[in-house]
């Protein structure tokens, strides 16, 4: 059996979070701001209002990641549950009715208490506490549960990879963070960070859409993944999301001829220094999972800058 993604959990504590800003927006029609290069040549035009919104979203994302890093650092045992919470919130998506998906509905008591979610209450409690803190400093209203649940899973994933790098550097935090940055995989999170602005569901999603992963057969897992547009490759790479014991999940998945080659691929990748194949495919798959059926509001968490009364300025 190869190295488990979750085997890095005991090393989660000595981490430094990555809060490098990622920015995104769409271009709309407002007064333009000319961007001039140092040579004096025109390199492009940008919308002044858009640039302000980009900065606002970027700064908010950075603070969210800091809050989640601290919360996860203090509760590393909740990493598997945070991953499963995000998965179970997302795979309620139904293509035929275009309902469900990563919409935060798992926060409702009637949904979190379902058999497939019974071990996830601790993860939801962490989300609730983080939300209180995040909402206290948000300048543009409360963060949606839909966004927060999937950002928490992202933070859990990144923390675990950083912990692995620190362990490879003999526990040296600074060297471990530099090593992880040198891998280059961190940049693959760009698309995920752009998908920021999910809306919360106002009622629980229908029952019966999420398997009890530990008891489900591989065929049942494959069928569920197929129903939301994912295949054997994605099933293998999300093995850490399918319950608390990744090794047991992968042993089960390895019994299926369609999934087994991918299980082997990712086990071998996790034994390398960079884990690149595994990490890149995991990021790509999780990004798709986190947006199933969602319409992203790219202006979410932006706000009008304070107005300045120029008559009161001292010149």
Characterize the structure shown.
It is a single chain. The protein has 12 helices and 2 strands. Helix 1 (48-74) packs across helix 4 (121-137), helix 1 (48-74) crosses helix 5 and helix 2 (79-90) runs antiparallel to helix 5 (145-168). The protein has 315 residues and is mainly alpha-helical. The N and C termini lie far apart (72 Å). The chain has one domain (5-11, 48-293): Peroxidase, domain 1, CATH 1.10.520.10.
General form: globular
H/E element string? EEHHHHHHHHHHHH
What's the CATH topology label?
A: Peroxidase, domain 1
Major sheet: arrangement of strands: 1-2
Strand content: under 5%
Number of helices: 12
Topology:
Blueprint: E1 32-36, E2 42-47, H1 48-74, H2 79-90, H3 109-112, H4 121-137, H5 145-168, H6 173-183, H7 190-194, H8 218-227, H9 232-237, H10 246-253, H11 260-270, H12 276-289
Antiparallel strand pairs: 1-2
Helix pairs in contact: 1-4, 1-5, 2-5, 5-6
Main location: plastid
InterPro entries: Ccp1-like, Haem_peroxidase, Haem_peroxidase_sf, Peroxidase_I
Subcellular location: Plastid, Chloroplast thylakoid lumen
């Amino acid at each position: 059996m190869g190295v488990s993604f979750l085997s890095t959990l005991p090393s989660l504590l000595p981490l430094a979070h990555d809060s490098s800003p990622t920015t995104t927006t769409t271009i709309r029609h407002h007064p333009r701001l000319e961007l001039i290069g140092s040579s004096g040549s025109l390199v492009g035009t940008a919308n002044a209002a858009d640039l302000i919104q980009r900065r606002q979203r970027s700064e908010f994302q950075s603070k969210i990641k800091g809050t989640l890093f601290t919360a996860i650092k203090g509760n590393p045992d909740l990493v598997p549950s945070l991953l499963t919470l995000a998965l179970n919130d997302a795979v309620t998506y139904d293509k035929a009715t275009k309902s469900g998906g990563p919409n935060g509905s798992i926060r409702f008591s009637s949904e979190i208490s379902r058999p497939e979610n019974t071990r996830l209450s601790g993860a939801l409690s962490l989300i609730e506490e983080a939300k209180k803190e995040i909402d206290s400093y948000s300048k543009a209203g409360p963060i949606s549960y839909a966004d927060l649940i999937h950002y928490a899973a992202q933070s859990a994933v990144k923390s675990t990879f950083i912990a692995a790098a620190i362990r490879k550097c003999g526990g040296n935090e600074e060297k471990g963070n530099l090593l992880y940055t040198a891998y280059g995989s961190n940049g693959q999170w760009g698309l995920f960070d752009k998908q920021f602005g999910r809306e919360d569901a106002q009622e629980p999603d229908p029952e019966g859409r999420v398997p009890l992963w530990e008891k489900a057969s591989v065929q049942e897992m494959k069928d569920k993944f197929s129903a939301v547009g994912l295949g054997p490759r994605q099933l293998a790479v999300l093995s850490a999301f399918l319950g608390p014991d990744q090794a047991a999940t992968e042993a089960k998945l390895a019994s299926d001829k369609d999934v087994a080659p991918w299980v082997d691929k990712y086990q071998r990748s996790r034994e390398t220094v960079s884990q690149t194949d595994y990490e890149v495919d995991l990021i790509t798959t999780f990004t798709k999972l986190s947006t199933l059926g969602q319409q992203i509001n790219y202006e979410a968490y932006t706000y009008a800058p304070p107005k300045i009364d120029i008559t009161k300025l001292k010149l």
